Amino acid sequence: MSQPLPLENLCFLKLGGSLITDKDTPHTPRLDVLERLAGEIARARQQRPEMCLVIGHGSGSFGHVPAKKYGTREGVSTPEEWRGFVEVWKEAAALNRLVRDALHAAGVPAISLPPSAMVTSRQGRVLSWELGVVRAALHAGLVPVIYGDVIFDVVLGGTILSTEDLFTYLASALHPRRLLLAGREEGVWADYPHCTQLVEQITPADAGKISRVVSGSTATDVTGGMESKVQLCLALVGKLPRLEIQIFSGGEAGAVENALLGKPSGTRIWRGEAATPGGS
Q1: Is 209 helix (H, G, I), strand (E, B) or coil?
Q2: Distance between terminal CA atoms of the chain?
Q3: 7-270 — its CATH code?
Q4: Per-residue b/e over 23-50, b at no fewer than 16 CB within 10 Å?
Q5: Rounded distance, CA 253 to CA 272, Å?
Q6: What is the pTM of this model?
Q7: What pLDDT, in 10s, does the model give residues 7-40?
Q8: What is the CA radius of gyration of the chain?
């Protein structure tokens, strides 16, 4: 590699499974939403060509349904569970192809990097991941796309790592300045499911009260829902002081584009006033 990775311009974007699929109806993509989001990503990259971008996406009504049926995240050992492991892999890959096709149609040079072929884990945590491929893609001006996927685990046999799990490891290695989590919710609600009080920002100092104000997802989500997402984010900003994370709705036209251009909405998760604010 002749040039160092421009970390100041590195951004991670997750397209939530609830945003790109109908999570209440198995195997149901929201193709119109995917097309719109891909267009917003393409326009943002045109306006900020210096931005390095890694995209991740959830499995929504594709992978989560067989994952719940077979209990894949908890471990895999029997022949039936391994058949379930393959079924989750197939569903996650099928949705990834739709995401990739939408990005290509919009002119985004996306390249899928399936975690099942690159990552191993130990008790549900990344054990090894050769990141040279990710770095090479970024240096080439491409957009790596990862997603929640089945993983071979040295203790559990097999498991599932969510996009947040994967982003947590990847962020610790690549140090992005921003991590954008686009879902259907406007952010973190203090009064879910009434959804009238949006939490504008969360810092590690708020960790003790998070479980009292944040509820999990109401749809099928084997990787934990909103509470585990917030806890993962807090742990990450605790390790990476300059990182800012935004949880926001991608349902409104232009929201993802604006977030990529540094005009985010929703709930901000960051280290606090003592840290240097992020941005790209």
Answers
A1: helix
A2: 22
A3: 3.40.1160.10
A4: beeeeebbeebbebbbbbbbbbbeebee
A5: 30
A6: 0.89
A7: 568 999 999 999 999 988 999 999 999 999 999 9
A8: 18
